[in-house]
Amino acid sequence: MQDGRRSLGYYLLAGFFGLYVLFLYGPTLTIAVLSFQGPDGGLTFPMNGMSLHWFRNLFARQAVGDFGGSLRRSLALGAIVMGLTVTFSVAAGLAFRRRFRGATLLFTLAVASLIVPSILVSLGIGLLFNLLGFEPAWYSSALGAHLTWTLPFGLLIMLAVFNRFNPFYEEAARDLGATSWQCFRHVVLPIIAPSVIGIALFGFTLSYDEFARTLMTAGSFNTLPLEIYGMTTNITTPVLYALGTLTTVFSFLVIGTSLGAVLLLRRRRARLGNDAGKGV
Amino acid sequence: MTDAPLHRPSTGRTITGQANPGAVVGAGQPGTGIARDPRRLPPGAGGRLGGNPVGPYLQVAPMALTFALFLVLPILAIVVVSFWDYDSVRVIPDFLGTNYSELLFSSVTWRIYLNTVKFAVLTWALTLGIGFTVAYFVAFQVRSATSQMVLFLVCTVPFWTSNVIRMISWIPFLGRNGLLNSVLLKLGVVHQPLEFLLFSDFAVVLALVHINTVFMVVPIFNSMARIDRALIEAARDAGANSFQILLNVVIPLCRSGIAIGSIFVVTLVMGDFITVRLMSGGQSASVGLMMANQISLLQYPAAAANAVVLLVIVLIMVTAMLRIVDIRKDL
């Protein structure tokens, strides 16, 4: 791999990689194509004409249970989970740079939260609410259930970031008279901004797509993944694919926007961040 | 308020101080285990650092509270309820061992647990093989950093999309009249559609691999990216061929990535029920599915006992795997 020409191994591995990508995206592309089935089309090929019939069908209320409502709830829940995940993770990340009692315990809890099976969290929170006499709802019990999944990712990302963080920038700012808050706002935050966007991406998408943790905690109103799951058992038309395609497109938009923002921040930093020797 | 490490350079235990050499050295120190956390904090150390001593506590409070309310308390609730009694409509507070004895002395339970372990082992082996190969290609065979980044993202983007939809996506592919069967029929490879493709153990493992390989790719790639390329060059200069380098240099240095990936995959598969339900079409069972069924029958104490047993098994598996890796250090 060090010399100029590609070896046979390279082409074999490249072929393997290509197959893996096909495996990864092939099925999703298949249902994307099938969601454009004509009105008489079925769940499999061949295509029976091309139309937007099933997308229109999706928004016609009678076809799908409560698609609009579940989408709104999922979006709202995703946004709340995102905000809380970012805030809690950044704050905890800052704390972990100093010594405090219980740091190891909290870290262990975060790892435990990742490895405890989702259905267990779901059952536990459902039972707890039941025992305490609270009514489970997407904005209370499901919110907590989602946070147990997103916060560990947020904390681990922050720990990874601060493991590689050079404190000399802060020292410099402090020497120039910056307060703690100014130091955080104008020095630390811009440096960790790309990772913060990453945490936001995790927070939103993991919540938006979460199924198992919502199952017992959503209460009387479904979130979108629950609604989709319900559809798989009683809907046998391509409207299911139309919904799948739309949600996936939406996920891709969110991911694309986040990655775009990260790239933009990186580029801006590369342009503005280093003016050494430029006489600025 | 984050100035603490700056004022104590002499201890050598500052955050950056122990993290920077970790790039290569950290990956190369086997068997350190989780017990040796270099940032384990001696009690009462906070006060010496200057700044507001309550600061860190306020900063971690929201996260700690969330875990206490939505992780610790719910697990306690499960443990408590697992000893309760129930009939067809309600649960009755009690202290009984019957939920456990009914669970542990039933051959159905054992079959289902074994089946779940089978799924976990198969998925683990396949995701490890695929994930390692994919990560190896991107980390060592792709030369430009930009292409590496792009290919890495191509592998990770589906992680942020809906699992349920990704499972449904296999239906037109694997079904009786699906894409694969029509191609095979047309090519004359088979004379009637293959029935085992969808709604079978095959479909379950396929979907599990499809969804979980990303959990192998990311940590293994992360470990590989930190391997000092000079080590590989040194091995080559010393006469090692590519295979020997892979076996004696690369694999030992990414054992932490392999361990983290394995923990993710095994725990996710052990607790899975949605994949098994959707892809097996009721032909197969897993512990998670068994719990979900008990829950839907309102047999909460039985489900809770099941949950406790599952949790213990998962924790044993993870503890075994954690002996290989110190997660905190390898971030």
Explain the overall architecture.
Chain A is built from 11 helices and no strands. Chain A is globular, with a radius of gyration of 24 Å. Chain A has a domain at 66-234: Orthogonal Bundle (MetI-like fold). By secondary structure, chain A is mainly alpha-helical. In chain A, helix 2 crosses helix 11 and helix 8 (180-209) packs antiparallel against helix 11 (239-272). Chain B is globular, with a radius of gyration of 24 Å. Residues 1-50 of chain B have low confidence and may be disordered. Chain B has helices at residues 15-19, 25-28, 55-81, 98-104, 107-141, 145-156, 163-168, 171-174, 179-187, 201-225, 229-237, 242-253, 255-270, 274-280, 287-296, 300-322, and strands at residues 85-86, 91-92. The longest helix of chain B has 35 residues, at 107-141. With 331 residues, chain B is mostly helical. Chain B is built from 16 helices and 2 strands. Chain B has a domain at 107-322: Orthogonal Bundle (MetI-like fold), CATH 1.10.3720.10. Chain B has a two-stranded antiparallel sheet. Helix content of chain B is 64%, strand content 1%. Classes of the chains: A mainly alpha (280), B mainly alpha (331). Chains A and B meet through helix 1, helix 3, helix 4, helix 5 and helix 6 of A and helix 1, helix 3, helix 5, helix 6 and helix 7 of B.
